[in-house]
Design brief:
Blueprint: E1 7-16, E2 19-29, E3 34-38, H1 45-52, E4 60-65, E5 68-69, E6 79-82, H2 94-105, H3 110-118, H4 134-146, E7 152-156, H5 164-179, E8 183-188, E9 199-204, E10 207-212, H6 214-221, H7 226-238
Parallel strand pairs: 3-8, 3-9, 6-7, 7-8
Antiparallel strand pairs: 1-2, 1-4, 4-5, 9-10
Helix pairs in contact: 2-3, 3-4, 6-7
Amino acid sequence: MNSSPAVEIANLRVHRGKLDVLRDLTLAVPRGQVVGLLGPSGSGKSTLMRSIVGAQKVAAGTITVFGVPAGAPALRKSIGYVTQAPSVYDDLTVTQNLRYFAQVIGAPRPDIQRVIHEVELEPQARQLAGDLSGGQRNRVSLAVALLGSPELLVLDEPTVGLDPVLRRDLWALFASLAARGVSLLVSSHVMDEARRCDRILLLHQGRLLADETPAGLLTLTGADDPDDAFLALVSGASA
């Protein structure tokens, strides 16, 4: 198995106007792991994810995905990307949405039923996406990202608006995908979800505060839970 990281970032800087959104980030996303990108709203998580999928203009630094520059056409079938806002067509059913996107990316037809099952949308398969709840629409977007069996999944807050049972089930799905060799970068502002990750990247005001395992994060800070660990790191950075 290739031991090189799925994503390698060196000295990444992103500006928005005169504001530095990301400040000299250097990090790696290992292959076959669930990596949590955690931090409060406004910390730069979505900007970092857009940079990785090639949808963000960067001011400096390099990003490679599987050894190829981010945004290269060769990566289109290798990356599944879920934005915070559901990316589905409201006037199509769940199945019709997936059929359309499967045709766009050239995914095999059996993938449609596979991904519907994986995100537990069988009861809603024939419903219009516009009639679904917010959490269900998020799951349709996730199903779209799973089409074609991508090697890297970049998921921007995929569990927002989901009930605790479905959140648990989705994290179990993420773990099973990683066990099959898929690399996942999953953002969240809910620090409790850090415990479900193999590795944690903590962002604050565009800077990387920590790149640790969940246990390593607690050891580093002497905290009892991820929330307290994050607060300790923020206090240390501000001192």
